[in-house]
Amino acid sequence: MKQHTCLLLAALAAAGLFAACNNDETEPTPAPEGIDEEVYAGGRLGTTFNQSASAYEDPTPATEMAGMATAFKYGEMFFEHTVTQNSRPFNGLGPLYIRSSCENCHPGYGHGRRMDRYNAEDWGNGYLLVVYDKTNDAYETSVTGMPQTRAVAPFPNPVEESGIHLSWLNYTDEWGNRFPDGETYELIYPELTIDENAFYAPLGVPYSNLAFRLESTIGIYGTGLIDAIDDDSLKAQYQRESEMGLPLNPAFWNGSDWTPTAFYGNTRHPKRYTYALSRGPLQDAPGSNAIWNITNVTRSNKRAHYITEAYARKASRDVNVQAQFADYFPEWVNPDSTMESNIYNYLMSKNLPAEMSDQDYVNFMVWHRGLAVPAARNLDDPDVQRGRKLFRDLGCAVCHRPSWTTGEDNFTDPTGFFEDGDSRLPRYPYQKIWPYSDFVQHKLYMKNDIRTGWCRTTPLWGRGLAPLCSGHADRLHDCRARNVIEAIMWHGSAQSDARRSVENFRQLSKADRDAVVKFINAI
Fold first, then answer.
1. Alpha-carbon distance 505 to 387, whole Å?
2. pTM, to two decimals
3. What's the Rg (C-alpha) of the chain?
């Protein structure tokens, strides 16, 4: 590990990349002699050779060489620290919230873990509730898109967790959960229900129309590198898959070009984050929003609460809230207005005081954009090499595209907080990276599937370290897969876009199946 790190720093120094954020090179620097380029999963500017329990937490070389290590550590504190109601600089929790700490959702900075109950404070519970109208897949409007279950006094919880019921059911696939050579596997899936009386605000549709799902957080390392992929490269991937005849979500691709809904905000930057492909670029993507909407901590460019009109109306008319509001929020009591108006104005204000300073937010985004990807491991192992070849031969690499080369990385920010290519954040120009994702949505047709059925291909890089870093090996959007084999076999529905690959995988010998798993855990 130390030898690889020294080689990396020597190569970077020789290439003049200590000033990488201002570098105008158009070609990637050659990999150090004797080192397989795929070892550098995040490229020379984005890879850490740390293989310990803290492997997901390291800053990228680009971050350190740009002199941002201190800002990175300050930003890290906001991810790890519990947010409070009034203790600076971690103040601002509420009035409603989903979690009081980012790391609660991302144990060890990785993917959330499978849970047997829904409790917001259970360590590692990365689950977000998905409440939607099953007749049209639209989110239920009385709760936020990521429904909140906690509130600070005097406000009631938007959804009472005691009314959320989670159970895990066994599933038998068409092959009887058995490979041709007799080896068996197990499959489970979640059944989620929420009692009608668990919802505080009046529902926007009949309760019978509602469906409930879970979506777990994913690992956040390497997200800055994903943002650095050139937009034209992403478009070329859509074109390639379209020409191959793969079904693509018509919300993003019309058969020959992007649709208007493929872009995010006013940036014309195609979406690439979240299972639903709802966000992009990173400067207004999940992390940037989570530090606001998970905790409701306001800042200069997010000066409103993450809340629904339905909740604000109900709470402002709640006699119990009215009786206590002045005790908790005296500064929002206007004696010339009714208490109902005072409460409503507070909850729905678009000009709230900023609870997070601009510098603290910059530091947080240095950390978010600056997280390194763990290097691939054991690639010279013969079994890993065989698994690598089989992975491609099976067709897995069509959707789990192995590598990309980043562009200039002159990133944008739809909120206007950061300027394009802002020098306050790390950049990753012209790096060959190995995320193993096409960043396109596909359908697997699983039992109790994700809302809409369309799900972005999750990057595989670094996931083999999850048991060490995050304490679990759970995979897929709701953590139903407890290991790699289960994740693969959940791709095998008769209608699945990955059906052919799973059929091919089933015909492998056990030794070859194990080699594929070993490879996936190595990258």
1. 11
2. 0.92
3. 24
